[in-house]
Amino acid sequence: MFKWLRRGFERCAKGFGWARLLGSVLLLGLLALRIWDPVPLELLRLKTFDLYQTIKPRVVTKRPVVIVDIDEASLASVGQWPWPRTVVAELVHRITDGGGIAMAFDIVFAEPDRTSPQLIAKALPELSEQARAEIRRARDHDEVLADALLRSRVVLAQSAYVLRRGQARTGTPPKTPIATLGGDPSPFLLKYPEHLANIKVLEDAAHGRGMVTVLPDWDGVVRRVPVVLRAKDKILPSLTAELLRVAKEQNTIVIKTGQAGVRSVVVGGREIPTDANGQLWVYFSDHDPRRFISAKDVLDGSVSFDKLAGKLVLIGTSAAGLFDLKATPNDPAMPGVEVHTQVLENVLTQTILTRPPYALGAEVTAATIVGLLIILLVPILGASRVFFLGVLLALILAGASYYLFASHGLLIDATFPLVSSFAVFLTLLFLNYLRGEMERREIRNAFAHYLSPDLIEQLADDPDKLALGGETKEMTILFSDVRNFTAISETFKQNPQGLTSLMNRFLTPLSNAILERRGTIDKYMGDAIMAFWNAPIDDTDHAVHACEAGLDMLDRLERVNKELENEAKQNARDYAPLRAGIGSGTGDAVVGNMGSEVRFDYSAMGDTVNLASRLEGQTKNYGVPLIINAKTAEQVNGRFALIELDAVRVKGRAEPEVIYALVGRHGTSDEGKIETLQAGIGKLLVCYRDRDWDGAVEVLSLCKKHGYGVDFNRYFDLFGSRIEQFRRNPPPADWDGVFELETK
């Protein structure tokens, strides 16, 4: 079993590439890590969101909430905290008289007021019974505060906590009605075993009760605040949600839940988007002293009450000694009451940040796409180009992430796609370096006994220049040869340098035509050229490029002839035009470094090579300059003007081959004439293969008579001669219309 798996893995690695395979495995591991989302990865994401808020903090345009602050000045004026509840009641009265819509305490009154007369009388044993009775007749301070709460819209704070052994539990306070849509949200909410409430007389008098518990992230920074949570198996609203409900005089808070968790909370007609755990992502502004009114100023009446009129009021403390300071993305020590104020501002001004349910899917998809691009492109483009491409993609991802934050308040993380793709890139870079070192070592070992040290080092520096052995692949082979070159060279007996110059003049443009069409020149054989396509560089349009090169070679040869003709006229000497025959065939061939241990060349060999060479030789027999085989014709059909010439069996091949003349590109001025000639020769071949010699002669006469502006006279003469021979000596009964070529 393990052996079978190992072989399968090795085959996969060989086909896909070890580096790509390992890069893919790494990418899968990183994606699994993102799904798991360990603390360091989460913190990296959160720090990125913090950076966005630092760059672009929320701009405060409206201040619907004010803070009555129990600050250092208030403590100095009134006395140390906790204050007598009568003072707190006076604070409530003055805020109500100042026009505050509703108020909430960011303070829990969990114990009776120790300054109440009853407790004072009990705490002073040296008092006489008469004095003690007189003091007890004074009104209880908690009742005074309860009366103040009844006359105003006040929300009291509660706090969730983990119950410690031996810790007393509180009673059951009144509960805000909670409705749910879409399922039970309880499994998704933050859960605490207990919560701390106010004393009963105050709880009963308050219009609402809300939780002030805020759970910082792993690094101690507050980024999310619960809108609802669970404590003592009850779903409870936050202080801010309850204050909104009371201010809007609503009875119920609605929680909307989906399959992935909580989606939103509806309070006072406003829908607050949350994360799956019912928490709101706070878009913080910088600390703003203009939100704060000193409690001292409210109590002594020195504050302008237009600062309270029509506002929601939070009563809390910024005094450092009361230890209610929170770290936020914008401030390492923001008063806790200001955090709740910013939550209210987010809701009332609709500036809440949102991390949508599709965020994880979008981040994983982006990481997968970028990672796969790197895996696919590094072996193709090289590390430097992919690095610059990666920088561009990184800028796009980071820019898109920041744009979504700044313009739409969406939190989509770009760090994970960037970190994962960079990790894949570094891994591929290392593997490519390691593979290069191994290839250099193999090349040095393989060729040290018959190549010079200098050449070995060149091959070691660029192993792609050398593919050991050969490979079989589909290729297009081209042969070209100048007609009657032996006779031409005879005229240069007394001028060998002139012959060399002439060869360079026609070989150079013909070679350029091949190279410009992505061809590889295999070798020069005197005046002949052998070239091929689709090796060593893959070329999916190799047949098209070979045909383009063949036509271009003929065009360039005509330009060379015009130059030679003009030179001959100027020098008053004879002029003989150069004519070339070109044969091209498509099929399988073996290509690679071939030769001996002493010397080798990168070359191609096989049946297709032999066929292309035979086709080049037949151009003079058929009287056309460029002949291609059936497979080439099939791959370029529709791109060029082709005329079927014959079905032949070349020397050395058992299978017949249909051959075509490549006479031009589509869209030329002679296209109509060529189409007419195609039809005429097509009829000729039908009659010829059906042994209808009279019909063939008739069609042949029409073709010769009209000519159609295309020089096929040699071809017509060839078929005229064959037809006469078959009339005198009919072919055997099993003749299939294929002509046996006797010459190469």
Written description of the protein model:
The protein is built from 24 helices and 27 strands. Among the domains are: 2-56 and 357-440; 65-341, no CATH class. Helices cover 47% and strands 20% of the residues. Mean pLDDT is 84; it is low at 1-15, 163-169 and 446-455. The strands form 6 sheets. Strands 19, 20, 21, 22, 23, 24, 25, 26 and 27 form a 9-stranded mixed sheet that branches. Strands 1, 2, 3, 6, 7, 15 and 16 form a 7-stranded mixed sheet that branches. By secondary structure, it is α/β, with parallel strands linked by helices. Helix 10 (239-247) packs across helix 12 (336-349), helix 13 runs antiparallel to helix 14 (383-408) and helix 15 packs antiparallel against helix 16.
- Gyration radius (Cα, Å) is 46 Å
What's the mean pLDDT score?
84
Shape, per Cα inertia axes: rod-shaped
Fraction of residues in H or I helices: 40-55%
Number of E strands = 27
Distance between the termini: 56 Å
Given helix and strand content, the structural type is alpha/beta
Q: State which percent range the strand residues make up.
A: 15-25%
Topology readout:
Elements: H1 2-16, H2 18-36, H3 39-55, E1 65-69, H4 72-78, H5 85-97, E2 102-105, H6 117-123, H7 129-136, H8 141-150, E3 154-161, E4 178-181, E5 191-192, E6 194-196, H9 200-205, E7 208-211, E8 224-226, E9 228-231, E10 234-237, H10 239-247, E11 253-258, E12 261-267, E13 270-273, E14 279-281, E15 292-294, H11 295-300, E16 312-316, E17 325-328, E18 331-335, H12 336-349, H13 359-381, H14 383-408, H15 415-447, H16 453-461, E19 470-482, H17 485-490, H18 496-516, E20 520-525, E21 528-533, H19 542-571, E22 580-595, E23 600-605, H20 607-622, E24 626-629, H21 630-636, E25 640-649, E26 657-665, H22 671-689, H23 693-706, H24 713-728, E27 739-740
Parallel strand pairs: 1-15, 1-16, 2-3, 2-16, 3-7, 4-11, 5-9, 22-24, 25-27
Antiparallel strand pairs: 3-6, 8-14, 9-10, 11-12, 12-13, 17-18, 19-21, 19-22, 20-21, 22-23, 24-26, 25-26
